Each structure stands twice: as C-alpha cells, then as structure tokens.
Amino acid sequence: MAQTKFDKQVEETAESVAFGIGRFLAGRPMDGVKRTDATFWRTGTRVLPKVEGRVSRSSYRAGWKRLTFRISSLAAVGAGGYQAGWVHQDATVSTAQQIWADPAPALAAVEQTGIAAASTAAVSTAAYFALTRKRRELMREWVLPLHEALALPLRLPEQTDPRRYLHIPRNFSEDDAVIRVDVPGRLDFSKDLVVDIIATKLALEGVTFSWHLAGRETYVTVKKTRKPPAKAAFKDPKVREIVAAAKESAPVIGIGSAGRIVTVDLDAESPHILVNASTGGGKSVTLRCIACQMLHHGSLVFVLDTKRISHPWANGLPGVTYCRDIADIHDQLIALGMEGRRRTRVADELGIDADPKDIGPRLLILLEEVNATMKQLARYWEKTRESGDPKVSPAVDALNEILYMGRQLRMHVLLVAQSATARALGGPEVREQFSTRILARYSVNAWRMLAPEVHPAPKSTKHHGRAQVVSGGSARETQILFFTEPEAREWATTGKPAPPAVGAQPGPVQLQKPAADSLADAWYTPAPELPPVTEPPVDRDALADVGSLTPAPAADPGGPTDHTPPPTVPGDDGQAVGLREAAEHHLPGITLAALRFARANDPSFPDPVDKRGAELLYRVGDLKKWARNRPRAATGTTDLD
Q: How far apart are CA 521 and CA 540, in angstroms?
C-alpha cells in the first residue's frame, strides 16, 4: 500500500513537471491561470471576466515574448555558472587567506563598492523619474481619468490596465497626433457616448473619429483636423489659378483643411445646394462665389431676391435675370418650370446618347431667404387665386418639379435659408433633394436637422467665411472663397457666353414669362365661367299694343345698365374686357395672376365699368394707363444664347 502511494506521488510529480515544461515552452503563465486574452502571437488587451486580484504586466505579454525572456534568463544563468567554474581553486584559497590575515583592504574595497553601487542606484532612480515624469503626468492627469469614465460604458473588468487599451501619446493635443482606443469586439456600447466621453475628458476640439469595427481588432482612432486657411481671397494668385482650373460643372466653394480644394460637382454629386446660416453667416458671399463662376462658364443665373439688395454685383450682367417683386418671382418660377418641361421633351427626343449640353445652357436659380419667400408666395397666391384654382401656388409646384428633375436637365437650385425646416421648404422629401449642404454659424438643432449623419457636431465658429460643407455623410470645414463685388463682375463677364440650345432659331432666344392663360393650362384647369346674361326676345307689337300702360324705365345718366353696352371711343381703348382677355390680347407681359393681385392690393387699379355674369369688366384704356404707370422692378436679360 505504501508503495502504491509512493508511485502515485511520483506520477503526480512527473505530470506536474511535464505540464510545467509545456507551459514554459508554450509561453503560458507557469501557474496555469490565464488572466488576459493574450495568445502566443498576440499581446493581450483586456482582463478576462471573473478574474480577481491584481493582474501583472507580464500577463499581457504574448507567449513568444515570455518564452524568449525565459530562455534568455536560463542562458544568462548558465553562462554565469560556467564562467564561475573556471576560477582556479588555488587562487581562491590564496585570496581567502590574505583577506583573513589582513581584512582592512577588503573592508575598504567593499565600502567603496557599496558607495559606488548606492550612487549608481540613486542616479539611475533620479534619471528614471526625470525621464518618465511627463509619462506619469499623462497617466495621472489624462489616461486614468479617461479609463475611469470609459470603464462603465465599455463594461470593462475592474482589473483592466488602462495602458493596454488607451494608446494616448504625450503630444495628443498637437495637430499630427493620433489617439487610439481599443474597444470590446462585442459592440454592445453606445458609440455616441464613447465619442462624447473621449472628447470631453481629453478636452479635444476639431477632431474626427474613425471607427474600425470589422474583424478581430476593434478600435477607434481620433485625429485632430488641420484648420483651413484664415482667408481665401480671389485676389491671391494661387486661389485664382485654382478657380481658373475648375471644371465647368464643379465650381470651387473654398479651401478646406490641409489646403484641400472643396468643390461640388453639380452633375456627378449634387445637382442642388442648400446654404443654411444665421444673419452674418456669409450666405450672400457663398452665393456670389458660386454664381460668378457659373456665369464665367456660360451659365444663366436667375436671382430671386425678395430682399432686393442681396446681390448688387449682378445688376445688369449678361445672362442674369434679377427678380425682386414677389409677382415677378412667382411668374419666373412658373416660367422656369415650363422650361424644365420643355427640356424634358427635348431630352426624350435626343435620346440617351446625346450630349447633355444639347438640351440647353446650364441654369442656376438663386433663391434668397426661402423662409420669407415661401410665405410671400403663399400669401400672393391666396390673394390672386379664384374659385377652382388649386390651393398650392403653381410657383411652388414648379420649384418642386425643378428640384426633382434638375440633374438631367442642367437646372440647379442654390437655396438660402436661415432655418431650412421641412415646413419652410415644402416637406422633408424636398429637403432631401439637397445632398450638399453648407452650414455656417449654425445651432445644435440646425445641425441635427440638416446633418444628423455626422456626429459629433463640430463646434460652430464666428470666423468670417468659415463654414461646414456636408456631403456624402462627412463634413469638411471650409474657408469660403471671397470675391469682392468688382472681382465677381469681372470674373462673370470674362468667360465664354452660354451656348444656344439645339434647334434654336437664329437670333436671340428669350425665356419668356408664361402667357396669361398658361398658368391655367400648364398647372391646373379653372372652373368654367358663368355664361353672359342675355335679355329675352322682346315682342315689339305687344309693346305697341300696351303703349302707355307700361311706362318706360327712366335712364340712369350715371352709368351703363345691365343691358346697355358700355360707351366706346374710336379704337379698342374704350372696349370693356375681363382680366383674362386683357392679359391675352391687350397687356403683353402682364400675367393674369399679376392683374388679380393688383386688383386686390393696388389702390390705383381702375374700377370696373360693367359686369358680364360674375365677371367684372374693365375699360382697356384704363388698364393700359395703369400698366404704364404701375411701379415695376427692373430685371436683367433673359437671353438663352
């Protein structure tokens, strides 16, 4: 029995030795307890669950590093023992006898050696603390507080060493520094919360976060973005060269970080651009930058400006149509909508292999202050619409059609708003047509509304000309190009003229405003008018028979009666007509909607002289006189060629 117990102990000992040798050669912990996720080839990054107590730094080492250290230690010990065996025994005995006979020199040597060793240790310790002071400050001031804040959101074990997953360089606040934070691969945490904690605890501003979540290694890198230049003036020769080299379809918006050129290709990327900024955010400067480049390449620009003075540089320029009155803006939008339909028919006839330029010159529509303009268009239509007209203004419908079909038709909308809400633009689906959005001096709510895919929101700045260009799910901080008004006029007029459309007749081709009846024919069907009132036939013989029994009614010297035609004078000026007939035949250039609006709002509008059923009739001469004297806003050219 005793022999059996001895054999069992021998077997257990041999098994333990075998396991120990296996752990030694495999680079595993010698006690057999795995505390981190380290493997033979990969360094550990986190403590395994249910591991208690302090975890040493050696537990994070890869297995091959442990094996190398162990073999090197054994080799050093073996070499030292081998060298010591070569010491001659006689010399050892002789030295011992001398020390025993006279110990004073030996004690002096030991004293000197101890002093030297102590001095070396003190200097080494001082050097170590001096060299690692900044690193220890980094750990104490930044790494450990960040670890304490991230431990709960990332659900890290308490024994996790922050140095294993927080890779923060000492110069992390500099422009070229890169911060890396290893995150658990289970991905059951809030990325927004992690981003906010990192930016807050490290006091970071103007940084970008890049998430790498595919595969085995999951981490996020933080880089500080380089600021754009403080100014980007067109008078700078380098900036002028950049603008001159830009594509016709991709005007330069500004200069981004690290000197990158920020452009938007209207054909390939975004047919329409939304500019959202508060007062003083540089909306007019941005529009001037883009519009003058488009004019330089032969595009036509339509400025719809209810403020009337937003773009004085564009007054009178060839290829510019400037509309200031709401009636002009209403009619111009309808005309542009009809032009879009015409281009659709032309594109259909040309086929898919045709050159897009054959459809016609590029059209750029600058819609200023859309918040106020859309309200004024709605009020204008409420005052001019009649029974049977649609509730929504046909001008708003025309704008929506242009937004939906602008890319293929080379028609682009550059819309400006102080708050581009879905209600102001006509619905969320309309806002989605602007895949490129330029934001300046924005609020947090405006950023969440217009660029929710970019998080966290970069801090808004009051730097003049600085904006965020959001496109393709990313935001680029940009210094907008600054053209002075003389520079914008000079650049707009020194380019090439707009090419004529295919099939255009020789000579200037006008983008005419719609005729008076085209508002109805193109956008809606009006309710039928009541037929004119006619007198029943009168039996003259019967009247003669009754004679004096029925006295004739007394004539009213003050005006015509229902059955008496209005007085006439030589020519057509004395003729009484309705507003529709006047717009069609007598007042070219004035739409039916404009006449209705003037009747309701202009005190100088002539009074009716008669009625035809429910329709009021006006003297043609009075209408022509009113048309000559009415105040009108000046507009530029509308030549298509």
A: 45
